Amino acid sequence: MNTESKGARLRELINRKEKVLVVLHPPTAAHGRLMERAGCEAGFVGTGGVVGAYTGLADIGVLTMMECVQIAGWIAQAVNFPIIMDGDTGHGGIMAVRRMVRECIRAGIAGVRIDDQPLEG
């Protein structure tokens, strides 16, 4: 399934009325494949789970935007269900958000969730 059809599938799943969409968190591509075999319809690759799985560190901005995209892309390419990536606060200003979205599209990621919390400091 290509990125465009995964994006369309994600929109379809989000908008359906007859059944709630349960989105699970595959921290690795191997976990994603297991989840797919179990019937998972969509995945959310959150930085907290990914940072913890790969580094053992807390999610305090340890990974760069490109590292997040790379890992989420590996997972997206390993499964046929759509993957949503945790975009945190966009990894910078509006141009960084724009770049992140473009990189996600290239990596095969179907959606991005961006925090709407104020940045401190």
Q: What is the CATH C level class, in words?
A: Alpha Beta
What order do the strands of the largest sheet run in, or round the barrel if closed? Answer: 1-2-3-4
Low-confidence stretches: none
Biggest beta sheet attributes? 4 strands, parallel
Distance linking N and C termini: 42 Å
Structure description:
This protein has 121 residues and is an alpha/beta fold. The protein has one domain: Alpha-Beta Barrel (TIM Barrel), CATH 3.20.20.60. The protein is 49% helix and 11% strand. It is built from 5 helices and 4 strands. It has helices spanning 3-15, 29-37, 47-55, 65-78, 94-107, and strands at residues 23-24, 42-45, 83-86, 111-113. A 4-stranded parallel beta sheet has the order 1-2-3-4. Helix 5 (94-107) links the parallel strand 3 (83-86) and strand 4. Helix 2 runs parallel beside helix 4 and helix 4 packs parallel to helix 5 (94-107). The protein is globular and about 40 Å long. The N and C termini lie far apart (42 Å). The mean pLDDT is 90.
